[in-house]
Amino acid sequence: MIVDMKAWLSFAVVLFLAGFSISLRGAEISVHSDFEGGSVDVLEIDAENQLLKIFPADHPGKGWRCWWYFRAEGLSPEKSLTLEVGPAPWATPDRAHLSDDGGKTWRHSGAGVRKDKNIIYTIPVTQSTMWFAWGPPFTPEDSKSLVDSIAANYEVATSFNLATTREDRPTPALKITAPGDALNRKVIWFQARQHAWESGSSWVAKGLADFLVSDVPAAVQLREKAEIYLVPIMDIDNTVRGAGGKNQKPQDHNRDWSEAPHWHAVAAAQNYIKKADEEGRFALFVDLHNPAAGDRFPYYYIPSRDEMSEVGRGNLNRFLALSKLQINGPLRYMGRATESGSKYDPKNWTRISKNWVIAHTADEAVAATLETSWNTPASTIENYETVGRQLGQTASIYLLENQ
Q1: Given pLDDT bands bounded at 50, 70 and 90, which one contains residue 402?
Q2: In contact, 396 and 222? CB cutoff 8 Å
Q3: Which residues are within 8 A (CB) of 249 and not within 5 positions of it... i.e. 6 or more apart?
Q4: What is the DSSP letter of 323?
Q5: Which of 58, 169, 298, 348 gives the lowest tally of CB atoms within 10 Å of its CB?
Q6: 3-state SS, residue 264
Q7: Is the dihedral of CA 85, 91, 96, 102 positive or negative?
Q8: What's the rounded mean pLDDT across residues 322-341?
């Protein structure tokens, strides 16, 4: 047998290079967060074992280090990804959110396993490129798309820019009311995301928006009786950068409700609310948040009852009772209402949004913060939106009964 050594060596080189390339496929795993809301610090990539260790990106002065959101490329669908995340408790949900279609749809991973201050998720890999996040992302671009789409498709809705942020970005918002003279209609104000990492609250806002423009009888009746404002994201700048926002400098958005707010969105919201109150129209304020990791059911923060009038306390009690009937699952409001007055935050309690609202509006107004649980198997986009619709139903019944 005669062997062409030159040809054989060329073939051997091809085999070697092919093997070399295959052996490095894992080593080519890359992690990316160069997009709106992206946030990750990569601690380790172990390609051979398909392991990633990450922390949320550190944004000094921009709030808690808790939100993470990234894209991983070069994954092998032949084995699972081990994703280790820290630190607990804020950055370590029991279940991660993941997407294998470019972030169009999101689902939970399986429950992770806790290891000291970290959590480890074992995730079946379905695509070579996948997206992972602390919770289902809702970005300022999503907010703009929601607001623009609703305004374009429903004559009862108008989009507007609540405020231009300190970093020169718009704050998309909606006004929803039936056609005609609205001067005799009550004003309701809903807002979400004073803390940028609390993405679930924006999905509650989306469900609420969808309800408010719907042909559900309660929504139709509410539009006829009220002028409704909705802001899906208050802290636009930190949501863009993927920062937590909570306890940021010079102050938290939800501790900025003073006579001289630092944040433009807060100042603008105050102006709308004060104007409505001067017209004798302001009725209801609800600030949408996500709570602590251990809070498994939605609940409300409410102003100190001692700071409210008798009529205000009665209206608040009715609103809470209706919430218990209407926000009935899968994320169910069980009736918990925690006062956040002077004992809750001795230094800043008057600068909390709902407390400011109660202090600056008529006695009959109601103001509350709805905290929707994020760390449960039911904490999904679908169920967040359900809470939003149920909140809309609550507001409608409350206002109609209170006329």
Answers
A1: confident
A2: yes
A3: 61, 62
A4: H
A5: 58
A6: helix
A7: negative
A8: 98
For 199-216, the pLDDT digits (tens) are 999 999 999 999 999 999
Write out pLDDT tens, residues 157-196.
999 999 999 999 999 999 999 999 878 999 999 999 999 9
Residue 372 makes CB contacts below 8 A (sequence gap 6+) with: 200, 201, 204, 288, 289, 290, 291, 298, 331, 379, 384, 387
Q: What is the pLDDT of residue 27?
A: 56
Chain segment 70-93, per-residue pLDDT in tens: 999 999 998 999 999 999 999 999
Write phi, then psi, for 338 (nearest 5 degrees). -105, 125
Dihedral pair phi/psi, residue 89, rounded to 5°: -95, -20
Tokens of 106: 């999101």
Q: Is 64 helix (H, G, I), strand (E, B) or coil?
A: coil
Residues paired with residue 189 on neighbouring β-strands, in sequence order: 229, 285
Instruction: Say how far apart CA 119 and CA 151 lie, in whole Å.
Output: 42
Q: How far apart are CA 211 and CA 78, in angstroms?
A: 43
Residue of 208, 211, 252, 214 whose CA lies nearest to 230: 208
Phi then psi for 41, rounded to 5 degrees?
-115, 120
DSSP string covering 115-179, please? Answer: ETTEEEEEE---SSSEEEESS----HHHHHHHHHHHHHH-TTEEEEEEEE-TTS-EEEEEEE--S
Structure tokens at 18: 């092919």
Domains and CATH numbers, the chain: 29-133 (2.60.40.3120), 140-401 (3.40.630.10)
CA distance 233 to 202: 7
CA distance 207 to 389: 5
pLDDT tens digits for range 48-69: 999 999 999 999 999 999 999 9
Question: CA 293, CA 14: separation in Å to the nearest integer?
Answer: 54
Q: Beta strand pairing status for 299-302 and 337-339? A: parallel
Query: Largest Cα–Cα distance in the chain?
Result: 105
Name the CA dihedral angle for 133, 338, 219, 359, rounded to a multiple of 10 degrees. -110
How many Å separate Cα 395 from the centre of its chain? Answer: 21
Q: What are 309's two structure tokens?
A: 């009038």
Rounded to whole angstroms, the Cα distance separating 28 from 74 reads 6
Rounded Cα gap, residues 288 and 232, in angstroms:
9
Of the candidates 207, 229, 231, 214, the residue with the CA atom closest to the CA atom of residue 326: 207
What is the residue whose two structure tokens read 């804020």? 90
